[in-house]
Amino acid sequence: MGEVLLARWQFGITSTYHFLFVPLTLGLSILLAVMETMYVRTGNELYKKMAQFWGKLFLINFALGVVTGLVQEFQFGMNWSEYSRFMGDIFGAPLALEALSAFYLESTFIGLWVFGWERLSKTLHAAAIWIVAFASNLSALWILVANSFMQNPVGYAIRNGRAEMTDFGAVLANPYVWNQFPHVLLSGLATAGVFIMAISAYHLLRHSNPDFFRPSFKLGLTCALIASLAVAGAGHRQAQFLAQAQPMKLAAMEALWETADPAPLALYASIDEEKQANSVELGVPYALSLMVYNSPAGEVKGLKAVQADYAARFGPGNYIPDVTPVFWSFRIMVAAGLWLIAVTLAGAYWLRQGRPDGSRWILQAAVWSLPVPYIANSAGWFVTEAGRQPWIVYGLQQVEQAVSPVVSAAAIWTSLLGFTLLYGGLAVVGLYLMVRIARQGPAEKPELEVTSSKGVALWN
Predict the structure, then answer these.
(1) What's the CA gap between 191 and 200, in Å, rounded?
(2) What tens digit of pLDDT does each residue of 76-128 get?
(3) 3-class SS at 397?
(4) Domain of 150, in residue numbers
(5) How far out from the chain centre does Cα 35 lie?
(6) How many domains does the chain fold into?
(7) Structural contact between residues 144 and 177, judged by C-beta atoms closer than 8 angstroms
(8) Residue 61 is inside which H or E element, if any?
(9) Cα(117)–Cα(336) distance, rounded to whole angstroms?
(10) Among positive and negative, which fits the CA dihedral 117, 122, 125, 130?
(11) For residue 254, is it within any domain?
(12) Which residues lie below 8 Å from residue 420, measured CB to CB, with a gap of 6+?
């Protein structure tokens, strides 16, 4: 493999590792703040106990997220020096603001929260975790501001072969940011809700500490249901924006080779990228036009038409991404989202009805759902980044132009293997600690009088 492919693999692996921890940090920080606020308002020690138990898992996840995220910034200077030279004036600003306005704030107040349980008043302590939640999500916003410029460049000028910022307000107000950020924030809440719901369901199936895990399950289920429905709406809005901002990505997501009006929504396609055609295709007529334009009629450009447009604008070249993995990754993300909506709707129904005959399979489905939001998050980011290829900065710089000219394949192989082994070790340690704490449950475990092997008492 050459330097470009190796550098892409390295950044892809480290980014995937890192992003496994990010959504849970974003969502669980907010839920911890909600738990502690309920403790302050009601004085109920159960909410304090909830915040402390789920807070232990949050801290492990947070630490792993910080460690895996630091490495990525070094790669901009090592493997992607031409990108840094071309984009440094723009990309560096939101990254610097992320460190100054979010990361330091987050790190400071998470320390106050961890060590301030018996030292701060209840109100101040709750304020600390709210600041952590705000700073965590502010950090994500600054990262997305940088990423959104790569997806939809605005507020810049090309001078001396480099992109220079001319309007910071335009970069901050980039419409790509404000279509992408709600999707990421809601995905984090869905991940956190499922995380709490699944672990709580595991304990309820074993009749372990139901007085603690029953309200935790309800909180996680409620959050997961609302966020899963909302993230579908945010994704729909983002797809509508892609039709104008990145028509190639939208066409690749649907394996739509020919321009269509009305355009069908593909459910399945056997894709032949060499012939630029689908040998087998199953779709819903009018549905893609309906999603993009809120109308059954509307033109959606195909891959071939967008390729011709790009060749006229940017010069000769192949501007079509790898369609097959983008197409199927998008469907994996959608299928995962539909699974979460179905499970949480069913759980909410049985919870409201108080019907114990469905409780065990709902709880089992909740446990099985634990990896689902992680799969959806990773698949969604793959679509976002792979669907932009061959561009690293859309319309301005291609991936092949961004790699460092002096870094050898051997050097990248060495760091790639080293980071992969290191991250693998961290993942094993982190997973072990989280599983151990999750299985143990909170420190105190009151006895439960089991009245039915079917779990009749679980919803009462």
Answers:
(1) 14
(2) 778 888 888 898 889 888 888 888 888 888 889 999 999 988 899 999 999 99
(3) strand
(4) 3-246+322-446
(5) 23
(6) 1
(7) yes
(8) helix 45-78
(9) 38
(10) positive
(11) no
(12) 13
Tell me, yes or no, whether 117 lies in a domain.
yes
- Is 66 inside any structural domain? yes
pTM beyond 0.85: the answer is: yes
132 to 136, 188, 240, 374: CA distances (angstroms): 6, 15, 33, 22
Residue 263 lies in a domain: no
Contact 454, 356 (CB under 8 A): yes
| 356, 413 Cβ separation under 8 angstroms | no
Question: What is the rounded distance in angstroms from the CA atom of residue 426 to the CA atom of residue 408?
Answer: 27
Cα R_g (the chain), whole angstroms: 24
Contact 49, 71 (CB under 8 A): no
Q: Which residue has the tokens 């699944």?
A: 198
Neighbours of 449 (CB within 10 A): 7
pLDDT in tens, 418-449: 888 888 888 888 888 989 998 888 876 443 33
C-alpha–C-alpha distance, residues 364 and 342, integer Å = 14
Q: Which residues, 6 or more positions from 163, have their beta carbon under 8 angstroms from its beta carbon?
A: 86, 87, 89, 90, 153, 156, 157, 393, 396, 397
- Residue 181's H or E segment, with its range, is helix 175-205
- DSSP state, 395? T
Please name the amino acid found at residue 111.
Answer: G
